[in-house]
Specification:
Structural class: alpha+beta
Radius of gyration: 21 Å
Strand content: 15-25%
Strand order of the largest sheet: 1-4-5-7
Oligomer: single chain
Distance between the termini: 25 Å
Length: about 280
């Protein structure tokens, strides 16, 4: 589990550990619902509120991040990849919505609105025939533009390596073998390689046209998740040691997520990123 910050009181530490255990156990859980993510966002002025309900239909709750831009008298509230639930039913949706309407504890101020983004596949197992979407609508929730990516590719890694290799497209296997043949190797990095990661990520963002944060922001994420072994940095290196691709991985429960990564032009030529993702 992700350790609480050293400055937390015993009761705060226990509450964070208990919350993280819940997030870890739920399928799907998200690293953005772990207390470590709240510590990352605290540097930018966000505070964490964890409303939840436990009842006959199960437990439902969310780590809600609050931020009050000055000089406004109220805060914005956002639950990335939340809420989470033991079971999604009309009952859990209604109960959780009622708790949110009460609002956060005194001292956290008023909120203007709450945005939630539960990771529920449209018409999937958790939303059969749109049942949960209808329940959310009936409880007063309204659709809004997404903040997090709308699509997630899930890869089941429980098969043995041979089966996973056979499941790759023929062209991708060729690319992996090409990278190996040209001497590309994959190595795990520590915090001293974050600058290499960021240089690659920045070049990728510039080429692909998406926005990224400062290097310090990714270092904050690393320092929040790495002590508990929940973050990994993988680099694909050319024979001369030059990084040609990078992946920043974060784990929560049974899932390892690759939220950040990229490759320079040289990595595209050597197909280093194919070997990196296979590794």
């Amino acid at each position: 589990m992700t350790p609480p910050p050293a400055s937390a009181t015993t009761s705060e530490s226990d509450a964070q550990r208990e919350w993280d255990a819940f997030v870890w156990s739920v399928e799907p859980g998200s690293y953005m619902q772990l207390s470590a993510w709240a510590r990352v966002k605290a540097a930018n002025g966000w505070s964490a509120w964890r409303p939840e309900v436990r009842g006959p239909d199960g437990r439902v709750g969310a780590q809600v991040l609050l931020r009050r831009p000055r000089p406004l008298p109220w805060a914005f509230a956002y639950a990335p990849r939340g809420p989470l639930a033991d079971a999604w039913t009309v009952g859990t949706v209604d109960a959780f919505t009622d708790v949110l309407r009460v609002g956060p504890p005194r001292g956290m101020g008023r909120i203007s609105h709450i945005r939630v983004e539960p990771e529920i596949e449209r018409d999937g197992p958790l939303d059969p025939d749109g049942a949960i979407r209808r329940a959310l609508g009936a409880a007063g929730w309204r659709p809004a533009p997404p903040v997090q990516p709308e699509a997630t590719r899930l890869i089941d890694l429980r098969a043995d390596e041979g089966a996973l290799w056979a499941d790759l497209r023929k062209k991708w296997r060729q690319y992996v073998n090409k990278a190996r043949a040209t001497g590309v190797t994959v190595r795990e990095g520590e915090g001293d390689r974050l600058a290499d990661f960021y240089r690659i990520y920045r070049e990728t963002a510039r080429r692909a046209g998406f926005l990224i944060r400062t290097e310090a922001a990714y270092r904050d994420i690393w320092e929040a998740f790495r002590p508990a072994g929940l973050a990994r940095l993988l680099l694909a290196l050319a024979p001369d040691g030059e990084p040609q691709a990078a992946l920043f991985l974060i784990r929560c429960g049974t899932r390892v997520v690759a939220p950040y990564g990229g490759m320079p032009a040289a990595g595209a030529e050597s197909r280093a990123h194919y070997l990196l993702k296979w590794a």
